[in-house]
UniProtKB/TrEMBL annotation:
Residues 68-91 are annotated as: Disordered. InterPro entries: SKP1/BTB/POZ_sf (IPR011333). It comes from Hyaloscypha bicolor E. This is BTB domain-containing protein. Residues 73-83 have a biased composition (Low complexity).
Length: 363
């Protein structure tokens, strides 16, 4: 792999961006709307199956006056009649100055209103990030939309592996994006799966199943992929099992201690939470009536350091249930507290259960 490259921005309008790397002179011109990128063909072909296929394809003609439109299916990179989502790329088989290849943007017919030309086009910005990953240059992600745009573009140009490998460093400088994950976790979950990025996948998974009463994978129509839904269901089921065991042990403890008053109060409160008197005997532990919040209930047990009537909390699974498994989010969130009052943040998944083959290096 080439050493870290120096990226030279030629002017303030960013109409020309040159990516440089020692010993690898730019020989490809890629014009994305009104922004032109100069890059090296060897690096492009090394990290992109799309450019390996099309830069030196057999159908390229040698006449400088002939243009060939390269279309590819967004899933496979193979030639088809489908135009790329943002625009098709026209390859001119000619030497442009010292450039061996020159690619320019061609806006699809009938799509002018959708993709109008502007000086700071977001697609050009995403393409710059895509090339930054190839050249091992730092970049950041500031929104969920930017992540999905970058992922879709990397998928189209068959560059998912290099984006995945460079994303970890990018996420360290993307706290605004990290703060947004819980607002639309299923979208991030899907993008992370496509990128096969374990850290981001696990981070999104925590939020996909976090809400105990209304988990995102059940409420959000975004998660249609059956394999990803199966992962979410299984992880949510594991949390539900711990909740059931903990609740059962608490009830068994009260029963063994002869605390029938507490048990009756708890049972009536669950059945009819609107009646305040139903909660009298367990008021200390259920502070969020009338809606019963199990995360808050367990948190109160830990906070009070014991259950009433000398019932031991040692055999419970509360430390596992109340654990925060978020890695990227450094906000110090606590299950059962604040905005996470109804959330468990303990979701986890082992490497062998990830929905992709970790031994596959090109996808």
């Amino acid at each position: 792999m080439a050493p870290p490259a120096k990226k030279q921005k030629v002017n303030n309008s960013k109409s020309l961006i040159v990516f440089q790397s020692p010993g690898l002179k730019p020989d490809v011109s890629l014009k994305v709307f009104d922004v032109e990128f100069h890059v090296n063909s060897t690096l492009l072909k090394l990290h992109s199956a799309f450019f390996r296929t099309f830069l030196d394809s057999a159908d390229k003609v040698t006449s400088a006056s002939t243009n060939i439109t390269a279309n590819a299916d967004s899933g496979s990179g193979s030639t088809s009649d489908t135009t790329p989502p943002e625009a098709s790329a026209t390859r001119e088989s000619m030497v442009y100055g010292e450039m061996k290849y020159k690619w320019v943007t061609k806006v699809d017919e009938g799509e002018k209103d959708k993709w109008h030309l502007v000086a700071d086009n977001p697609k050009a910005e995403m393409f710059e990030k895509l090339l930054s990953s190839v050249y091992l240059r730092p970049y950041s992600i500031d929104s969920i939309l930017k992540l999905t745009d970058l992922t879709d573009m990397a998928d189209y140009y068959r560059m998912l592996p290099i984006v995945s490998h460079t994303l970890s460093n990018a996420l360290l400088d993307s706290q605004e994006f990290i703060k947004q994950i819980n607002t639309n976790p299923c979208v991030v979950f899907k993008a992370a799966a496509k990128l096969r990025h374990k850290v981001l996948f696990r981070e999104a998974l925590v939020w996909v199943v976090a809400d105990w009463r209304f988990p995102a994978f059940k409420e959000d129509g975004e998660l249609l992929n059956p394999r990803l839904r199966q992962v979410a269901r299984c992880v949510y089921g594991e949390i539900a099992t711990m909740v059931s065991r903990s609740t059962s042990k608490i009830m068994d403890g009260f029963l063994a201690a002869g605390c029938t008053e507490w048990l009756e109060s708890f049972g009536k409160g669950v059945i009819d939470p609107q009646k305040e008197e139903h909660w009298d005997a367990c008021d200390l532990y259920l502070s969020d009536r009338p809606a019963l919040s199990l995360p808050k209930f367990f948190q109160n047990i830990v906070y009070n350091d014991d259950l009433p009537y000398d019932v031991s909390i040692d055999p419970l699974y509360l430390s596992d249930l109340l654990r925060n498994n978020l890695v990227l989010d450094q906000a110090g969130r606590v299950a059962g507290e604040g905005d996470e009052k109804d959330c468990f943040l303990c979701a986890k998944i082992e490497d062998e259960d990830l929905p992709w083959d970790p031994e596959e290096h090109d996808w």
